């Protein structure tokens, strides 16, 4: 088999990760721009059903690798299986999402080919069939454009939110190929999956986020933001100073030392827009900012901005949205 672009599909016990659809979207766009075919690869044990689900997307084919050593994730087993798939496919690009799992095994995989990895990319540009990948450096203060050498395969990972899941194009049904692999028993034995504490919130799955910053002034005023989040059916989040003051729990923090999110709508209330916060939310589809400082950096990336007192604007905004939804 041969494929120009290989997309790694991440899942948890057969449940597809949202970031895998983002990876499919990235692979499809790269395929269209370079004129190459796209193949998705699923690793697992008893993963045929998931492979069939992935086959519904516009792909050249889906490779299903079913092996008992892949039932639970270990970096040894995943790197070994993916190495065999990559060598058999003779792919030019191997596209993955920049998740904890990928960050664990992908460097090992790339090293087996004597290659580095272009990681945590936020966008790409293709001209004349040559791809340039952009990744942020120095906590997002600078963007670095990276061009791979001509030798394949090129291993590249994309930051969550660089592409949207709904950009993944459905197709008429791609064929599913079963590929046998030789996976030796892993040196590591996986423990039970880590479970977040009950209070923890995964904001990366939220479609609407209302975030508060220093401009909210006191813990009591957070109730105003909660009302807006409630009427929008969204989640409440915060910048680091709010969590440091323990006005909201740490699992609500957005930024370089918190969660990275890319919701459909992000409303920033009294957030100036320090770079440490921006790196955690600048890939949001639509950003609305309310801040009394017209020079606040948050306005540089906001799609819509209100320069004014958030305590005047917020109740009016909440009430108008409530009227529209009633």
- Low-pLDDT residue intervals, each spanning 5 or more residues: none
Strand content: 25-35%
Main beta-sheet strand count, sense and barrel state: 9 strands, mixed
The CATH superfamily title of the largest domain: HUPs
Q: What does this 3D model show about the protein?
A:
By secondary structure, this protein is an alpha/beta fold. The protein folds into two domains: 5-178, Rossmann fold, CATH 3.40.50; 203-325, Rossmann fold, CATH 3.40.50. It contains nine helices and 16 strands. Strand 15 (286-291), helix 8 (298-301) and strand 16 (304-307) form a beta-alpha-beta unit. The longest helix is centred in the N-terminal third of the chain and has 17 residues, at 18-34. The protein is elongated and about 65 Å long.
Which helices and strands occur, and which strands form pairs?
Layout (H helix, E strand, L loop, with lengths): L4 E5 L1 E2 L2 E2 L1 H17 L3 E7 L3 H7 L6 E6 L8 H15 L3 E5 L2 H13 L4 E11 L2 E8 L4 E6 L6 E5 L17 E3 L29 E5 L9 H11 L2 E4 L1 H5 L20 E5 L5 H4 L7 E6 L6 H4 L2 E4 L2 H16 L1
Helix pairs in contact: 3-4, 5-9
Summarize the structure.
With 326 residues, the chain is an alpha/beta fold. Helices cover 28% and strands 26% of the residues.
Keywords:
single chain, 326 residues, alpha/beta, Rossmann fold, 2 domains, 9-stranded mixed β-sheet, 5-stranded parallel β-sheet, 9 helices, 16 strands, 26% strand, elongated
């Amino acid at each position: 088999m041969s494929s120009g672009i290989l997309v790694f599909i991440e899942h948890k016990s057969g449940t597809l990760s949202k970031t895998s659809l983002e990876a499919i979207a990235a692979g499809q766009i790269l395929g269209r721009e370079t004129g190459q075919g796209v193949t998705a690869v699923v690793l697992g044990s008893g993963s045929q059903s998931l492979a069939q689900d992935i086959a519904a997307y516009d792909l050249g084919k889906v490779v299903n690798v079913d092996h008992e050593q892949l039932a639970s994730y270990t970096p040894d087993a995943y790197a070994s299986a993916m190495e065999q798939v990559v060598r058999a496919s003779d792919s030019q690009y191997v596209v993955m999402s920049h998740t904890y799992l990928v960050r664990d095994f992908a460097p090992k995989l790339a090293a087996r080919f004597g290659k580095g990895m272009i990681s945590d990319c936020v966008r790409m540009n293709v001209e004349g069939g040559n791809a340039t990948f952009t990744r942020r450096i120095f906590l997002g203060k600078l963007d670095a454009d990276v061009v791979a050498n001509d030798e394949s395969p090129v291993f590249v990972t994309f930051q969550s939110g660089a592409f949207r899941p709904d950009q993944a194009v459905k197709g008429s049904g791609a064929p599913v190929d079963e590929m046998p692999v030789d996976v030796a028993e892993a040196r590591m034995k996986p423990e039970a999956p880590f479970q977040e504490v009950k209070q923890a919130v995964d904001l990366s799955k939220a479609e609407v986020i209302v975030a508060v910053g220093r401009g909210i002034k006191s813990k009591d005023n957070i109730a105003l933001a909660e009302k807006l989040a409630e009427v929008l059916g969204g989640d409440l989040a915060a910048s680091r100073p709010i969590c440091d003051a323990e006005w909201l729990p740490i699992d609500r923090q957005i930024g370089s030392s918190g969660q990275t999110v890319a919701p459909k709508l992000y409303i920033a209330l009294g957030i100036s827009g320090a770079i440490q916060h921006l790196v955690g939310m600048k890939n949001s589809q639509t950003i609305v900012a309310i801040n009394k400082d017209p020079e606040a950096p948050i306005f540089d990336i906001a799609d819509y901005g209100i320069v004014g007192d958030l305590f005047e604007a917020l109740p009016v905004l909440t009430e108008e949205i409530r009227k529209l939804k009633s």
